[in-house]
Amino acid sequence: MTETNIRKTIFLEADRAAVWDYLTEPEHLAKWFHAPKTALAAGAKLEMFGTESGDLLIWGEVTSARKPEYLEYSFTVKPMGDAVSTVKWTLTEVPGGTKLALEHDGLPQGEAAFGLTLALDKGWDDHIGRMRAHIHEKAD
User: Fold this and answer.
1) What letter does residue 86 receive in the DSSP assignment?
2) Among candidates 135, 138, 137, 140, which has minimal Cα distance to 98?
3) pTM of the entire predicted model
4) What is the pLDDT at residue 81?
């Protein structure tokens, strides 16, 4: 059986430094994803809270943060139980902006876990769409 993962790539009309801020700074993360209490930095705990509920939704550890090119953290949500996955963001400068690639590896496998994979896949689409909307509003 192959590893279950999710991969997405989008193009943004913003330089890598601006996109990096959307991936790491609490005030920007709250606009498109979930709100940590502190900026994401290498070696720090990853804890993201619901913007409305305030509940802890996602936890892990930031394992790499090389501004403005690469961010990696372990990622767990309650439906995953004890399983720990890995989220990797790669930012590449392209003419006119930034290519942003997401790799979410190590997801639980099997038929019982497929519903979780579908939910995470849709969730990333929704969250990334919100990021694009916020970044492009700033560019206008």
Assistant:
1) E
2) 135
3) 0.93
4) 81
